[in-house]
Write a sequence for this structure.
């Protein structure tokens, strides 16, 4: 915020107006929404309550917090990390730099899985759980479901467990630290369905990744080897451990043909497009 205005007594309306214009000049997306979200967080208010206090002055302490938020945002930090949360479907999930920010495409994956599996399969593995978004959403969508949620990152598992407690599904999810399926030998047997949003960005395509994503989100959850397919190859190599199970994956927009070739040798493959018409999801019924 401009130094010469630092001592001004700002109202909520004035702060939203000034910040919206500032974000517009910086070329940031959704400048009005972003300014309202950041100010609401600084004031510890629900965003909708800003309008009920539109002409109220903002005290010094939250104003300083808001200024710090503005600085972080214009420097490229994702707004979800500044706020400390991300809405996923209807669930507010804690997120920080230890976990990938859940994307809207993954909401579509959950809808596909829940629509196909509700009432039939009730034992799920949420592989690479990260923030716990997939496991928590499945637990809420399918009340009878029991879920194993695993991740290689202990810090990610801490976030996922807090989210599960918040959304009252912690007792139905078993959290485990594992590298792929290693460490899950005592749990994998009863599993019927595996759901995973793996790291699928190719390291050779690093230059195509949003700079904010590269600078702030965990690379371990982003990159799947030179061509992005390492995790899928590992699944094929471990097909004997997954016999008789159905595996769901999210994948990159240009990977369909290679994945179809890769998985056709171990199971029956089905694909689904996302809302933008891009091939984005697949299921494999692993041969028994």
């Amino acid at each position: 915020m401009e130094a010469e205005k630092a001592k001004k007594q700002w109202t909520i309306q004035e702060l939203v107006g000034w910040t919206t214009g500032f974000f517009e000049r910086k070329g940031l997306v959704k400048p009005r929404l972003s300014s309202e979200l950041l100010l609401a967080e600084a004031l510890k208010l629900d965003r909708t309550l800003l309008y009920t206090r539109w002409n109220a002055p903002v005290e010094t302490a939250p104003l300083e917090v808001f200024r710090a938020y503005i600085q972080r945002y214009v420097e490229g930090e994702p707004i979800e990390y500044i706020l400390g949360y991300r809405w996923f479907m209807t669930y507010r999930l804690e997120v920080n730099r230890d976990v990938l920010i859940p994307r809207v495409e993954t909401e579509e994956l959950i809808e596909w899985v829940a629509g196909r599996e509700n009432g039939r399969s009730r034992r799920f593995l949420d592989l690479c759980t990260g923030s716990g978004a997939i496991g928590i959403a499945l637990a809420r969508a399918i009340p009878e479901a029991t879920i194993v949620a695993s991740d290689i990152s202990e810090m990610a598992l801490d976030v996922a467990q807090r989210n599960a407690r918040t959304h009252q599904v912690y007792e139905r999810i078993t959290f485990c630290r594992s590298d792929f399926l290693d460490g899950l030998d005592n749990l994998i047997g009863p599993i019927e369905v595996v759901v995973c949003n793996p790291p699928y960005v190719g390291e050779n395509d690093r230059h195509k990744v949003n700079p904010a994503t590269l600078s702030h989100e965990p690379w371990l959850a982003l990159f799947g080897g030179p061509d992005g397919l390492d995790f899928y190859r590992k699944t094929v190599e471990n097909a004997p451990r997954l016999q008789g199970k159905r595996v769901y994956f999210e994948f990159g927009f240009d990977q369909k043909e290679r994945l179809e070739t890769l998985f056709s040798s171990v199971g029956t493959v089905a694909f689904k497009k996302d809302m933008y018409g891009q091939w984005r999801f697949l299921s494999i019924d692993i041969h028994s």
The CA atoms of residues 246 and 287 lie 9 Å apart. The chain has ten helices and nine strands.
